[in-house]
Design a protein that fits this description.
This is ABC transmembrane type-1 domain-containing protein. By secondary structure, the chain is mainly α. It is built from two helices and no strands.
């Protein structure tokens, strides 16, 4: 995650330097754009991590439920044997 954010900052900074050398836009606009890009990347990374955590939790819950059902069925089969 840190590497992704760092890469985005480096790329954005390079673009900003090129734009500043061309004197196309204001420094404040460049800083705002860079901050927005970093914030968007951080938000996307956080959302991806949250989704991964939710998926892992759901998978664990499903596995636990399946094991519980199999255990109950096994007990019923053994008792009725």
């Amino acid at each position: 995650m840190v590497l992704i954010v760092s890469a985005v900052v480096v790329i954005t900074t390079a673009i900003v330097k090129i734009v500043l050398e061309a004197r196309v836009i204001n420094v404040v606009v460049v800083i705002v754009v860079e901050v927005v890009v970093v914030v968007v990347v951080v938000v996307v990374v956080v959302v991806v991590v949250v989704v991964i955590v939710v998926v892992v939790v759901v998978v664990v819950v499903v596995v636990v439920l399946v094991v519980a059902v199999v255990a109950v069925v096994a007990v019923v089969v053994v008792v009725n044997w």
